[in-house]
Amino acid sequence: MAGLARMVIGIPVLVLQDAEGMTVTIETRSDDTYRGFLASVEDCMNCRLSNVFVTRRDGSTMHLDHIFVPGRQIRLVVLPQILEKAPVFGRVRDAKDGKEHVRGLGRGRYLARDAMRAAPPAMPMGMPPMSAMARPPPPPTQPSFLAKRSLGA
């Protein structure tokens, strides 16, 4: 089940999850900078760092053992250069070169296109469906207001 869940989340989160256990730098919306060991990353980019050096907006620094950074507050993440060779980027390169079809890279558009190609051709406007053509037309009936008059007269 975990493999299926990894296919649903985006590539930036996958790269960030590959960086778990490495030293990263995170800049937040409030212009604070956190540099430390990336302990864990959630699917919504919430990050837990340990052994963290914090640089505040005014330039003051401090050291913290642990910190939690909400994903909605993250503006920028500086990752180690070794992640250039991450398996996620290999799958993206293969998909762009046409070597491999990767789910999550425009798959909705292509699935819709394939479904349209597999669908039966549409009927021209104004033509009844084939099932209606095979049936004989219903017998004509007398309108209800004429039927009442003939009974009473």
UniProtKB/TrEMBL annotation:
Residues 11-83 form the Sm domain. GO terms for molecular function: RNA binding. SMART domains: Sm (SM00651). The keyword Signal applies. Its main location: cytoplasm. InterPro entries: LSm4/Sm_D1/D3, LSM_dom_sf, Sm, Sm_dom_euk/arc, SmD3. Residues 1-21 form the signal peptide. The keyword Disulfide bond does not apply. Residues 128-153 are annotated as: Disordered. GO terms for cellular component: cytosol; spliceosomal complex. Keywords: Cytoplasm, mRNA processing, mRNA splicing, Nucleus, Ribonucleoprotein, Signal. It holds the Pfam family LSM. GO terms for biological process: spliceosomal snRNP assembly. CDD domains: Sm_D3. It is found in: Cytoplasm, Cytosol; Nucleus. Belongs to the snRNP core protein family. PANTHER family: SMALL NUCLEAR RIBONUCLEOPROTEIN SM. This is Small nuclear ribonucleoprotein Sm D3. It comes from Cafeteria roenbergensis.
